Amino acid sequence: MSESIKTRFLIICVICTVVAGVVGVQMIRIQNTEPAQRLLAAGENYQGVTRMVYPDRGNIYDSKGRLLAGNETSYEIGLDLNSVTQPETVASIASSVLGLDYTQILGYAQMTPGNGNPYYIVLDDFVDEDKIVELETIKADYNSREARGNVVLPSISGLMWTPHSQRTYPEGTLAANILGFYSYLDRTGGNGYFGLEEAYDSQLSGTPQAVFYAFDPQRLSTVEEIPPGVTLILTLNREIQAMTEKQLDQAIEWSGAEGGTIVVYDPEDGGVIAMATTPRLDPNEYWDYSELFPNPMPYNSAISQTYEPGSVFKVLTMAAALDSGTVDVDTRFNDTGAYHIGGHTVYNWNHGGWGDVNMTECMQYSLNVCMTWLAVEMGPDTFYSYLKAFGLDRKTGIDLGGESSWPLKLPGDSLWYEVDLATNSFGQGISMTPIQMAMSIGAVANDGRMMAPHLVKAMVIDGQQYNVDPVVVGTPIKAETAHSLTNMLVDSLESEASVALVDGYSVAGKTGTGEIATPWGYSSSETNASFVGWGPAEDPKFLVYVWLEKPTISQWGSETAAPVFSELVSKLVVLMDIPPDNIRLAGEIIASGQ
Amino acid sequence: MKKDLLQAYKQAPWRTQIQWVGAFLLVVIAIAAVSGLYLFISGRSAATGRRIQNLENEVAALHRQNNDLETQLGEIRSEQALSERAKALDMRPLKPGEVLYLEVPGYVPAGGPNLAPPPMIIEERTPLLMPEFTSTFLDWIASKLQATTLNPTPTSEVQP
Asked: Does residue A325 belong to any structural domain of this protein?
């Protein structure tokens, strides 16, 4: 080979190498330009689709496993504009089956997707299964027809229905004040409001996750299983709740009260067995909320409305006096009918003096003067330290959204006066929620141990059930004090043959009639009638707190709230399988081998 | 001997050509075999993936159906519905005096509902795709080596 040919080959090789190198460099450069990256990213869109998946909201069950809040399938109806072939048929069917506006749907169906127009339009949402079945029947009918000649077959192609979950409450208004509601119409930003739906909103809703659904079946391994929201099992008993609500409604109608609250509470573990209030909203139609609850009406007065409880508070005053050793059960007091304190005079409810009485009689006759004397004898430091120990200076922390409390005025506060020591001792000038009262008085029914009120008994998280242990909030009084006071209250009810008594069962209890503060002073004609009672006295299984707001049939708790307690408990013992005392105590004797 | 072979090839050059053709065909067959195997695995993997996709959709549909049935059951067995049915059957709530209580020694009332196992029991989850469809040859070797390391062959007899 001559030298010139060799040189020529060399030049050609160099040129080819340079060209190849330039092509390579150019390839790399082009692939890394911004438009190329955008193209690559756009290409990723065709690999699959990323969707935000919202887990099913957790169910809520009562203590026996009966569904109180769950989910059911609902449908979104949409129009895939790329697939619409017969706008008139689509509009006609959507109009006749779903009741949508024909002209509007026809306008949508005739749109050309892209160039500013959407590809998909939502026509309707939360459509029932029945209508979907109707649409599926029509679609199947159209698909089964065979074309003959040039006849164009009808088609609803482009009309789509997509299933999704909808919150549902099968019991309607039952326990609505406890459950709260979930704003399910907002499918991406729904929230729980009030009650359990608010308190456990984040747990119930679970964690939404962005999931990539690959079109390439080989990439399916990236799809992750999304755990559903937490399921709640409550201490609430549905049958008892229903019975309590019926009793409350009847009591309000009978007494002419403006409203009312009944709490059935387990003093042993703090579980709320039933909690009835008025009014009650059907959480399936939560949009009626503002109409049913005009501001400032609370959604659940048992936890959100404070009031001056009146004489039921005397249970706590007497508990403090006994526990601090200020008095004992046999201490006697000479009631003159008036007590002067801080420039004011305290009178009994009948403005009379009851003479020489013991502590049981102080409770039985509900003597304000006696309670004032007890508070003064204890001194403000002791008295208020007991009130704080009973948890009356703070919220109970119940696991429901919307709990309120009223500040407890203490000696040294600018708004506290000496007379407050007296009025507070018989439940005036002090405001509590019914659940605060139930929790604190529950300590008397539970050997002095005060339990945290709660609704959730167990949770199911990711397929495993976690039981919630009861929490002891404190031990404000000794067990002996609790027993003595319970016996005093049993005796006081039996001595006066109270209408609160329940045949066959020993119950302890106390009535209360709280005057209502108005801009012109306390009103004697408008009162809050209350009753707190628990039983069976030897081994309490329930504590019932009744509050009727402004009853008109009578202003006294002993005539309005007490009979409600009796009637409710006579049904409660059947539902709770609590035998009468004679059978129960005989059984205990047999069991203990005596 | 070497001389004889060279002579033979010079006289019959088609022998060299056959060798080249044979080598080329061998490579083609090897590539075809690997491609076929790859296609087979990919096909199976894709079919399995599609099946999983369908099963996932089915699971989602069954899950929705389960929710619907539970809600329907809740509505049918709601307190109001049961009360109405009981009234229609001339039933009424018991009064305390009408209940007959029996002493059953050793009877422990049923506790709350158990909707799921307690936290101590952890179920093993089946992977979405079997490792055979996702692991590489190197992964397989590594797993075998790991298994051998974790479970060495016993060097001495195990006493019963």
From this structure: yes
Our CA-based measurement puts residue B160 at a distance from the nearest CA of chain A, in whole angstroms, of 39
| 3-state secondary structure at position A455 | coil
Q: What is the overall mean pLDDT for chain A? A: 91
Residue of A483, A172, A449, A100 lying closest to A328 (CA atoms) = A483
Structural domain span for residue A370? 238-291+299-592
User: What is the distance between the alpha carbons of residues A236 and A575, in angstroms, rounded to a whole number?
Assistant: 13
DSSP assignment string, A221-235:
GG--PPPPPPEEEES
Q: Given CB atoms, is B143 within the 8 Å cutoff of chain A?
A: no
Task: Kindly state the percentage of chain A with pLDDT values over 90.
Answer: 75
Tell me the average pLDDT across A470-488: 96
Q: Over 70: is that where the pLDDT of B156 sits?
A: no
pTM here? 0.83
For A295-318, the pLDDT digits (tens) are: 889 999 999 999 999 999 999 999
Whether residue B29 is contained in a domain is answered as yes
Q: Which of residues 75-134 of B touch A (CB under 8 A)?
A: 75, 77-80, 83, 93-97, 99, 101, 103, 105, 109, 112-119, 121-123, 128-129, 134
From the list B49, B64, B119, the residue facing A466 with the nearest CB is: B119
Task: Provide the pLDDT for residue B121.
Answer: 55
Alpha carbon of A564: minimum distance to chain B alpha carbons (Å): 16
Q: Are B70 and A70 a contacting pair at CB < 8 A?
A: yes
What is the number of structural domains in chain A?
Answer: 2
Asked if residue B125 belongs to a domain, the reply is no
How many other CB atoms are there within 10 angstroms of residue A289's CB atom? 15
Of chain B residues 17-46, which have a CB less than 8 A from chain A? 42, 45-46
**Residues A251 and A341 reside in one and the same domain:** yes
Does residue B33 sit within a domain? yes
User: For B16-60, how does the pLDDT look when each residue is reduced to its tens digit (9 = 90+)?
Assistant: 888 889 999 999 999 999 999 999 988 888 888 888 888 888 988
The residue whose two tokens read 């307190």 is B79
Is there a cis peptide before residue A380, judged by omega within 30 degrees of 0?
no
